[in-house]
Amino acid sequence: MPRTVAVIPARHASTRFPGKPLALISGRPMVEHVWRRCQEARVFDEVLVATEDARIQEAVARFGGTAILTSPECATGTDRVAEVARARPDIEVWVNVQGDEPLVDPAALRVLADLFRDETVEMGTLVRPLEEDEVDSPHVVKVALALNGDALYFSRALIPFVREPAEAGAVRRHAHLGLYGYRRDTLLRLASLAPTPLEQAEKLEQLRALEHGVRIRCGQVVGRSVAVDVPEDVARVEALLRG
Q1: Number of neighbouring beta carbons within 10 Å of residue 21
Q2: Which domain holds residue 103?
Q3: N or C: which end of the chain has fewer CB within 10 A?
Q4: Residue 223 has what pLDDT?
């Protein structure tokens, strides 16, 4: 395995949920739940939190983690991960773990990290089977795959379109999970590029990579992820933690 670091972008200034990384879930800050699950994966040389706010940095230090202060001007979590990566040429692979998914599966993180055992993989992500109730939802991103597992395209629309209903059973449809891994050079290159037309049309950052010819290898997992987008989501996650 190449040296691999997980970075959890944790932004305090969320419009819909200010201070979200510090929201208590079963008595612990949400960012701690994500950090602990990254540790449980046992595939990362380090697990870091990247934040623009000293309050989050202090909270991370209290539970034994390390948080790096990054620019408040970072537009995306990827930009925040790239800022950390610029100062660490010793690390080859960087994994961006969403800071608002306290139930992220350590096994899924292992699948993502393992993609980089293949030296030809520049960027990786995860997919799972698309479920019937998600077919028409623009909030669930779909992905069409090449035979080798590389992404052909991501869309909020249902892809592929099946022209003949009789062929529908032969098509496996996939939903995308928003976890990414990058070779350092690829990450820094993508962070330096302007948004691209398809990216702006679909509002999907990963399309920037495809539009610039970067191949994205997709690891296959099962099970939906559960994100905390608004305060009301906290109770739902706590109920799932209780089992």
Answers
A1: 27
A2: 4-242
A3: C
A4: 85
pLDDT tens digit sequence for 45-71: 999 999 999 999 999 999 999 999 999
pLDDT at residue number 20: 95
Q: Looking up tokens 């679909």, which residue turns up?
A: 202
- Residues whose CB is less than 8 angstroms from the CB of residue 132 and which lie 6 or more positions away in sequence, other chains included: none
Number of domains in the chain: 1
- Closest C-alpha among 151, 142, 144, 102 to residue 124: 151
Structure tokens belonging to residue 142: 């779909």
Contacts of 116 (CB under 8 A, 6+ apart): 1, 2, 4, 92, 93, 124, 181, 183
Model pLDDT for residues 113-131, shown as the tens digit of each residue:
999 999 999 999 999 999 9
Cα–Cα distance, 25 to 219 (Å, whole number): 29
